[in-house]
Specification:
The strands form 2 sheets. A 5-stranded mixed beta sheet has the order 1-2-3-5-4. The chain contains 13 helices and 7 strands. It is an alpha/beta fold. Helix 8 runs antiparallel to helix 10, helix 10 runs antiparallel to helix 11 and helix 10 runs parallel beside helix 12.
Length: 336
């Protein structure tokens, strides 16, 4: 499909050249101004090395997904998750002077961010924080690989290995990059914007609890039809809860790590009052243990140390599932 470029401009911000390419008809100028503000603030840091930033504002990311292979270095969710991401920053660790930031207008509108300038600032600041937040731990995390090799539970025709692999990947393999990027975002002066975005996230989480009743009803129907045992339905409901809400720790913990405890506690107060009481009790216990594990993450972990940390994360997940009678065994390794 041929795309018509509606907008192409060049800007100079504090020594950084910003190139903007867009196939979006309207609403582009406010986004560019926010990007300029984000670059200007980051440029005050000696860690900032971006000489060229290319900003693509696209109706969707179909052109990008067509160009990328599954072997390419991709953000959490991989190629399949790319169309659903509002903003993504693709950069080369070996070439820190440039990056390509892609804004997905369709996903932004779906999430309600397109006309929310503070949310846009938080999203852009977070993506630009990724290369700045690279450290020994994040570099090692890119070599970490996970394999689930034993799942013991009669689950009928339902396949849960892929669900658990995606969950474990996000909470363990990708977590260091997300935690340090959010921490860098806060330390660089974008804490207010990030808190605004995270308030929206926890509010959305509280609203999504209502949709959990649909899953419960579907599982109960499968039990009634003899396709699932009641125990298997309980396991699937727990996996849905873990997958839907545990990753909120990645948003809350950076505020603890930067000493913004009141902001972290504000977000958790919503979770405590409006989310966790409606989920399986194992979710709250897993969240609390995961928060402790994330707070303790250091930026200088060598492979053996990161493996031990990652095993701690996966043990939290395994212990939650064990409460429902599911045995999860996994293997972590470092690929050189």
């Amino acid at each position: 499909m041929t795309r018509t470029v509606k907008h192409f401009t060049l800007h100079r911000i504090a020594g950084t050249e910003l190139r903007v390419i867009s196939d979006v008809e309207s609403g582009v100028i406010p986004v560019i101004r926010i990007e300029e503000e984000v670059i200007e603030k980051y440029a005050e840091s000696p860690q900032w090395r971006q000489e060229v930033v290319t900003l693509f504002i696209l109706r969707d990311l179909e052109p990008l997904t067509r160009q990328l292979s599954r072997a390419a270095g991709l953000p959490p969710g991989g190629l399949d998750g790319l169309p659903h991401r509002p903003i993504v920053n693709l950069y080369d660790l070996k070439n820190p002077v440039s990056c390509h930031v892609f804004i997905n207008q369709g996903a932004m509108e779906k999430e309600g961010y397109w006309n929310d300038q503070e949310a846009i600032m938080a999203l852009l600041a977070h993506e630009h924080a990724h290369p700045l937040a690279e450290n020994e731990t994040t570099r090692t995390s890119r070599q970490l690989r996970l394999a689930i090799y034993d799942l013991r539970f009669p689950i009928g025709d339902f396949s849960i290995e892929n669900l658990l692999t995606l969950l474990a990947d996000k909470l363990c393999l990708y977590a260091p990059r997300e935690l340090f990027a959010n921490e860098m975002t806060i330390r660089s002066g974008f804490g207010k914007a990030l808190l605004h975005l995270d308030r929206r996230s926890v509010t959305n989480a509280s609203r999504s609890v209502a949709g959990r009743e649909d899953l419960q009803w579907q599982l109960q129907r499968e039990v009634a039809q003899g396709h699932l045992t009641p125990a298997a339905a309980d396991v699937l409901l727990l996996i849905g809860d873990l997958k839907g809400y545990l990753d909120l720790a990645l948003e809350v913990v950076p505020f603890y790590r930067t000493g913004q405890e009141s902001d972290a506690q504000e977000l958790e107060a919503v979770l405590e009052a409006e989310v966790f009481p409606h989920l399986e009790p194992e979710v709250h216990r897993a969240y609390t243990a995961l928060r402790k594990q994330y707070v303790a993450l250091r930026s200088d972990l060598m492979p053996a140390e990161l493996m031990a940390w990652g095993e701690g994360v996966l043990n939290i997940l395994a212990e939650a599932l064990a409460e429902k009678g599911l045995t999860l065994r996994y293997r972590l390794q470092i690929n050189e």
